[in-house]
Amino acid sequence: MKPHPFDVPQLRCFVALCETLHFGKAAERLHMTQPPLSRQIAILEERLGVRLFDRDRRSVRMTPAARYFLSEARAILQRAEDLAIETRLAAEGVLGTLAIGFTASASYEILPRLVGRHHARYPGIGFVFKELLIEEQLRLLGAGSLDIAIVRPPIDAQRFDCHTVMKDHWSVALPAGHPMSEASSIAIETLHERPFIAWSPISKYFHLILERLFQESQVRPHTVVSMSQPPAILAMVRAGLGLAIVPNAMASQGFGGVVLRRLEAPEVDPAMLVLESVLAWRRDNQEATVKRLVETAMSLGVADESAPPSGEPSRADEDAGAGLPGKGLPAPATAG
After folding, report:
1. Which CA distances in Å does 105 have to 65, 155, 167, 312?
2. Of 8, 83, 192, 246, which one's alpha carbon is 20 to 30 angstroms from that of 43?
3. What is the CA radius of gyration of the chain?
4. Closest C-alpha to 208, from 260, 142, 275
5. What average pLDDT score do residues 95-123 get?
6. Where are the domains of the chain?
7. Same topology for domains 8-91 and 167-275+307-323, yes or no?
């Protein structure tokens, strides 16, 4: 194997000799004796195939090749020092890249809040984002292709740790101006045999929860179409094809022509109406970058997207009024 043309110790010797033009002084600066310094310079000249110094008993002079090589050698040494510092910062979790998986609904509020806070704390951290279904996120998280996943519970506690980052509530999406939009909340029974935009089985989490909600409430809406993407579901609602049940956080999308009203289902376990999002990571992942992101998430607390502050309209209602003729309907205190 052909040896490298030079190494860092040889460059340090070369730069020191260029700056002192004296073997004794250069050796003293490097805390070494003169013979090892002379040997390193000789090896460097041999590997480069050029003479770097003209020397006699009285003086040492740089050759044109040395003058050219000096600036490059200094740059390499500076880069080596920078790299050492950056490596230590990476080990401390303040420099590096995080691969984060997320669902579409997480992109409304959770992800921007988390990334914004973490970037303010650690500007040296970069991000790679992947919008994926929950099952795919957990598969890639387990395989090590993701560092963090923003998913819905339950998750495998033997493989993953998690922290709750948001709690939400189911809401009914209606076209602006719909008669039921005057109510502050909508009982699930009123959806019986009404045209309905359902969640596709591709969105397994939402699909299964709503099936159970309807079953326990003995409600059977008339499914017009099933879709997996939130904007598509809201577009169908706005077009008047049917109503839909969606996370209240979707109000933050500002989707014009659609209003959200809190879903009530008194016959079922109230916990079924609460939606949680969790930050998940592998239990065996001890990387400092991941630990610091988890710390940032914990510092944010748990976001509650189930309702806006008392007396404030939802953004979906505001945009509904802006996007259609006439005034927007007043939003109830529980709309999001």
Report:
1. 61, 18, 12, 22
2. 83
3. 32
4. 275
5. 93
6. 8-91, 96-164+276-304, 167-275+307-323
7. no
**CATH for 167-275+307-323?**
3.40.190.10
Tell me which fold the domain 8-91 belongs to.
Arc Repressor Mutant, subunit A (1.10.10)
pLDDT above 50 (res 333): no
Angle 134-143/204-217 helices, nearest 10 degrees?
140
Question: Where residue 322 falls among pLDDT bands split at 50, 70, 90?
Answer: very low
* Burial track 270-306 (b if 16+ CB lie within 10 A, e otherwise): eeebebbbbbbbbeebebebbebbbebbeebeebebb
Closest CA relative to residue 275, chosen from 172, 170, 204, 187: 170
- Report the pLDDT averaged over residues 144-165: 94
Looking at the predicted structure, is the pLDDT value of residue 334 above 60?
no
- pTM given for the model: 0.70
Q: Which of 141, 159, 158, 237 is nearest to 197 (CA)?
A: 237
CATH of segment(s) 96-164+276-304: 3.40.190.10
Task: Spell out the SS3 assignment of 84-147.
Answer: HHHHHHHHCCCCEEEEEEECHHHHCCHHHHHHHHHHHHCCCEEEEEEECCHHHHHHHHHHCCCC
- pLDDT of 305 reads 66
Backbone angles phi, psi at 173, to 5 degrees: -95, 130
% the chain with pLDDT above 90:
68
Q: Dihedral sign for Cα 239, 240, 243, 249, please.
A: positive
